[in-house]
Specification:
3 domains; single chain; four-stranded mixed beta sheet; alpha+beta; elongated; 20% strand; Arc Repressor Mutant, subunit A; 13 strands; Endonuclease, Chain A; 309 residues
Length: 309
């Protein structure tokens, strides 16, 4: 059974199992022994596979199980983002999010079906991608734009930046995709995300910081800038080059060693000695941006004062 499941990406329907020579008695015995975990009616994986899978892995299994029964279903929105390994606000959704192409005479809408949230939507053939794992998802461009409509701007931007960098989406494709979509709820958010996506960004936290800065009306910082100091060249996460104001995304320092923290302090001191202001951004700043934006504004005032003096 494990070998058969391995050949089918860990997911088998009861019908497939029987076609592959597994008798109903063998299935019944394996289920009674606790060796099978049913993902939905008529589709299963092994109990060990399910128990050892990450949250993302379980979401993959649950999504593929739905597609075993309904092959026309395509993972979309947050589910597609998870399967494409794009950053998401809260990890995998509780239920697979699936869509099926809407017929010209049909209607849209959504509803729950056998443990999945399904919808009908306009879906072109080029907007469907089959991954090596056999699961079908909406294309990266479609996925980013769908997520941007449903999430806040900051997380939409994080997904878009990651897609540009890792999935080789062209910025022009994202922009044209946003402009071509009909006027629907969330469309302004998706266009804002498409306009501000940058492939140089290296982490979701940098995207979140950039979104907070730009949405507050400050100049958009440039990602991954090299800065020369007396101690050599350093690459910084984000920089308002006109004002010499650096923003560092601090997620990487949470679990740093004492030695790493000391090296980071010396690095920051060198940047300040080179007449740059440095401000740090953490995930808590994303959740509560107002105090951080006040500090950012003060840092900008100091930077501008230094430039004038």
């Amino acid at each position: 059974m494990d070998e058969l499941l391995g050949e089918q990406q860990g997911v088998l329907s009861v019908g497939q199992a029987r076609d592959l020579g597994v008798t109903p008695a063998a299935l019944k015995w394996a289920r009674r022994k606790g060796q099978l975990h049913f993902l939905r009616r008529g589709v299963f994986t092994s109990t060990s596979t399910w128990e050892n899978a990450s949250a993302e892995g379980r979401h993959f299994l649950a999504t593929l199980a739905q597609q075993r029964v309904h092959p026309a279903m395509v993972a979309c929105a947050t589910s597609a983002a998870v399967l494409l390994e794009l950053p998401t606000p809260n990890g995998p959704p509780e239920q697979p999010q699936l869509t099926v192409a809407r017929a010209a005479t049909g209607s849209g809408g959504r509803g729950n079906r056998a443990g999945a949230l399904s919808r009908r939507s306009w879906l072109a053939a080029e907007e469907i991608v089959t991954l090596p794992s056999q699961v079908k998802v909406t294309s990266p461009v479609r996925t980013v734009l769908d997520c941007a409509r449903e999430w806040d701007e900051a997380w939409g931007l994080a997904a878009a930046d990651a897609a540009l960098k890792r999935l080789q989406i062209q910025p022009t494709a994202l922009l044209s995709g946003a402009e071509a979509r009909p006027s629907i709820p969330g469309q302004l958010r998706s266009r804002w995300v498409a306009e501000h996506a940058r492939e140089q960004v290296e982490s979701p936290l940098e995207s979140l910081a950039r979104a907070v800065i730009v949405r507050a009306g400050f100049p958009e910082p440039t990602p991954q800038v090299w800065v020369h100091t007396a101690k050599g060249w350093f690459r910084v996460d984000l920089m308002d080059e006109a004002n010499r104001l650096i923003t560092e995304a601090d997620g990487k320092l949470k679990y740093a060693t004492a030695t790493t923290l000391w090296e980071e302090k010396k690095r920051e001191d060198a940047l300040r000695d080179a007449d740059h202001e440095v401000i740090r951004f953490t995930m808590s700043d994303h959740h509560n941006p107002a105090p951080w934006l006040r500090r950012y504004s003060l840092a900008m005032e100091r930077a501008q004062h230094r430039l004038r003096s």
